[in-house]
Structure formats: structure tokens, C-alpha cells
């Protein structure tokens, strides 16, 4: 989860998020180099003692400032396209979960299990247990097995919502009457927090998301207990 004064992304908990972090660092280096070069040119122009300069023809400079941006764009675009294709790949998911946005809570349906359906409401501040996070904790976690491909089907019941979990590299719009899908693999056990990322009304900030990644045996025990309720 995020912490105060955090400047970068959250720690990656899925292979896709790891790719996004590497791409972020890659692009940031290009930004730093370009900014340094521009600052150097501006400083040189401001501090030069030459008072009468006249460049009639500078084909070499024109070649440089045309070819260099093209190379930079290619170096940035190729990894970006690779990640986009990786994010769209959905091959043999072990589990399919349907998340439906409501004003203002989420409901989950595990399509592989007939009776595994539940709502997930934010726990009010006055009911929080010691150590719980305000505005982030919910009564029912969306529990999934770790190291397993999970397919998410995301929709909404009333207005636009957005199902977003930064640590897993997921942000997918929930649109009424439309079913969007995405996939993720939780690479380690833990609790991963998210929130609705589309302004959906007065209580938009009070419909958090909690994904709990557990070993397969624990997931089977949890699913059995939920279906027996």
C-alpha cells in the first residue's frame, strides 16, 4: 500500500507491475538526459560572450535535432508496445472473478464456484480494529490463490467505476452494460489495496478494494468456508 511522502510506485506484486516499474525507470532516464541537455544548451546561450552570431546554414544541427528525437521515440515506444501486448494476454486462467461496482461498494462473483458471491463494504472508521487502515479496509477481502493466472471480469450496476489495484498493475473501467476483462498473477502472498479510480458520486472515496493473495491450500479452505455461510 502507499505510504506518506511516497514519490514512486508501490512495490510490484505481479509480473506486469514489475515490467511497468522497469519501463518507468527506463523512460525516466531518457527524461533526465533530455532535460540535462536542454539545460546545458540554455545555460551556454545565456552565458556566451559572443554578441554577433549569424548561422545561415547549419544542416548538421538540423540533422541531429531531427534524428535524435526519432531514435528516442523508438527506444521508448518498443518497450511500451511490448508491455501493452503482455497486459492483453489472457491464457488459461485458473480462476475467473467478476467484480461489479455499485454506489458505493463492490460485489464479487467467483464464476468457477456456483455459490461463491459476496459484497465488499468499507469498514467505518469507528469500527476499525487495531492496525487496520482507515478508508482502505473492507469486511470481505477478494481472496485469490498466489502464483495463479486470475481473470477479472469488471462491470458496473449503476454509474462508471474503475477497479484499480496499483501493486498488481491493474486499472480497468467498470462500465454499466459492458464487460471489461483483465488478468493478473499475484507473485507473493499479502494484502493489496486499491480504490475506485473513477469519480462515481458522493461516496466515491469510500469504496476501497482489498485483494488477498494466499497459498492454494488456504484459498481452498477460504472458498469452502464462504460457500458454507
UniProtKB/TrEMBL annotation:
The function of this protein is: Component of the cytochrome c oxidase, the last enzyme in the mitochondrial electron transport chain which drives oxidative phosphorylation. The respiratory chain contains 3 multisubunit complexes succinate dehydrogenase (complex II, CII), ubiquinol-cytochrome c oxidoreductase (cytochrome b-c1 complex, complex III, CIII) and cytochrome c oxidase (complex IV, CIV), that cooperate to transfer electrons derived from NADH and succinate to molecular oxygen, creating an electrochemical gradient over the inner membrane that drives transmembrane transport and the ATP synthase.
Q: Name one GO biological process term.
A: ATP synthesis coupled electron transport
- Localized where? Mitochondrion inner membrane
What cofactors does the UniProt entry give for this protein?
Answer: Cu cation
Q: Cytochrome oxidase subunit II copper A binding domain: from which residue to which, for each copy?
A: 92-225
Q: What is this protein called?
A: Cytochrome c oxidase subunit 2
Into which family does the record put it? Belongs to the cytochrome c oxidase subunit 2 family.
Residue ranges crossing the lipid bilayer per the database entry? 26-43, 63-85
Which Pfam family is one of this chain's hits?
Answer: COX2_TM
The record's InterPro entries line, in alphabetical order, gives: CcO_II (IPR045187), CcO_II-like_C (IPR002429), CcO_II_C (IPR034210), Copper_CuA (IPR001505), Cupredoxin (IPR008972), Cyt_c_oxidase_su2 (IPR014222), Cyt_c_oxidase_su2_TM_dom (IPR011759), Cyt_c_oxidase_su2_TM_sf (IPR036257)
- GO molecular function terms noted in the UniProt entry: copper ion binding; cytochrome-c oxidase activity; oxidoreductase activity
* PANTHER family per record: CYTOCHROME C OXIDASE SUBUNIT 2, CYTOCHROME C OXIDASE, SUBUNIT II
Q: Mind listing the UniProt keywords for this protein, alphabetically?
A: Copper, Electron transport, Magnesium, Membrane, Metal-binding, Mitochondrion, Mitochondrion inner membrane, Respiratory chain, Translocase, Transmembrane, Transmembrane helix, Transport
Q: What is the lineage of its organism?
A: Eukaryota, Metazoa, Chordata, Craniata, Vertebrata
Single GO cellular component term: mitochondrial inner membrane
State the free-text cofactor note: Binds a copper A center.
Membrane topology, from the record: Multi-pass membrane protein
Reaction(s) catalysed by this chain's protein: 4 Fe(II)-[cytochrome c] + O2 + 8 H(+)(in) = 4 Fe(III)-[cytochrome c] + 2 H2O + 4 H(+)(out)
Amino acid at each position: 500500500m502507499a505510504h506518506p511522502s511516497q514519490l514512486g510506485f508501490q512495490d510490484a506484486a505481479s509480473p506486469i507491475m514489475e515490467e511497468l516499474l522497469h519501463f518507468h525507470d527506463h523512460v525516466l532516464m531518457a527524461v533526465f538526459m533530455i532535460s540535462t541537455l536542454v539545460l546545458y544548451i540554455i545555460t551556454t546561450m545565456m552565458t556566451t560572450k559572443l554578441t554577433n552570431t549569424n548561422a545561415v546554414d547549419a544542416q548538421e544541427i538540423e540533422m541531429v535535432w531531427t534524428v535524435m528525437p526519432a531514435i528516442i521515440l523508438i527506444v521508448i515506444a518498443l518497450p511500451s508496445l511490448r508491455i501493452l501486448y503482455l497486459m492483453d494476454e489472457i491464457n488459461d486462467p485458473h480462476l475467473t472473478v467478476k467484480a461489479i461496482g455499485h454506489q458505493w461498494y463492490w460485489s464479487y462473483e467467483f464464476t468457477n464456484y456456483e455459490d461463491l458471491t459476496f459484497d465488499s463494504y468499507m469498514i467505518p472508521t469507528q469500527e476499525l480494529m487495531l492496525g487496520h487502515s482507515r478508508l482502505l479496509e473492507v469486511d470481505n477481502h477478494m481472496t485469490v490463490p498466489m502464483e495463479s493466472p486470475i481473470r477479472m471480469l469488471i462491470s458496473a450496476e449503476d454509474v462508471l467505476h474503475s477497479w484499480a489495484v496499483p501493486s498488481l498493475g491493474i486499472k480497468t473501467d467498470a462500465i454499466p452494460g459492458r464487460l471489461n476483462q483483465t488478468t493478473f498473477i499475484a507473485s507473493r502472498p499479502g494484502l493489496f489495496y486499491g480504490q475506485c479510480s473513477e469519480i462515481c458520486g458522493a461516496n466515491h472515496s469510500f469504496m476501497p478494494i482489498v485483494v488477498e493473495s494466499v497459498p492454494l491450500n488456504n484459498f481452498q479452505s477460504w472458498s469452502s468456508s464462504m460457500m458454507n455461510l
